[in-house]
User: Fold this.
Amino acid sequence: MAAASVVTDAATEVLMPGSEDEAIAAFGDGAEVVVVGGGTIVLPDLTYRRRRARKALMLGGAGLAGIETQGSRVTIGTMTPVQELVDMPAPLGPCAANVADLEIRSQGTVGGNLCAREGYEAPRGDLQSAFLALGASARSAANGDVTEEPLEDFLPKRRERLLLGVSFDEPAAGAFAGLDRPHTHDYTALAVSGAKGTDGTLRLAATGTGSWGVRLPSAEAAAEDPVAAGEAALEDVSPHDDALASAWYRTKVLPVLVRRVLDELKESA
Ligand SMILES: Cc1cc2nc3c(=O)[nH]c(=O)nc-3n(C[C@H](O)[C@H](O)[C@H](O)COP(=O)(O)OP(=O)(O)OC[C@H]3O[C@@H](n4cnc5c(N)ncnc54)[C@H](O)[C@@H]3O)c2cc1C
Assistant:
């Protein structure tokens, strides 16, 4: 069945798919489509004409929300509200709890957070670091083709594909540390997530250090010495200035957050 559609004006056709298949068909090749998850970012962008849409794809009725666990494998639908993650183990739970406030977390979705474009004044997409640290894979579609790939590979193409969900194996241990200062209001200037897999693999990732979340391979390689790992993390990032913090400040704080995460992982091992 084709997605229901409403033409609001000459410029925007609103598509309301009732299933995953309909959503994939309505997205097509993604050209001229603006995907609307919870809308906390995209609706103000459309309202204030920072973005224009020939087609707006509303995912609310497509049945893409929910958290499923099969053995140690966890799968989270793209439309799951961020608030539903807050009680999950670290790094995901504390990372989600650190996003904005209850109102935004209840409306904002996992997919919207992971696919958020670069912010105008503050970093967005905090969940990227937690899912990267968990070694998550992303299931996404374009041109009717559904692919599952490492989140790391998906993030650079997140504007071109429809995210359907993310999956990961429950870690043996996890940790999260964020830069919280009163004047940063509800946004996170910088954050680091870490997770140790049941096979001993350690992954570290950061948000607030570039256009989107990144793994910290140099810090991972030096993880036995948290102080050295903190300094090594600077090789993996290109911090910039924005309204929340300067690049200089971020280079001072990142090593501290990496150290905290590694210390916490050691304690919980
Ligand atoms: C006051 C305030 C505080 C905030 N604080 C934070 C914060 O601390 N940390 C943080 O990370 N964010 C923060 N945000 C930003 C935002 O609210 C969250 O990132 C939220 O999770 C975005 O989800 P959403 O579903 O509302 O995204 P939407 O606005 O629906 O979409 C965001 C982007 O992702 C695209 N998109 C959505 N779903 C998909 C999909 N399934 N496939 C492909 N593309 C998709 C949209 O087209 C759009 O470009 C804040 C926002 C506000 C207003």
User: Anything to note?
Assistant: The two ends are 50 Å apart (CA to CA).
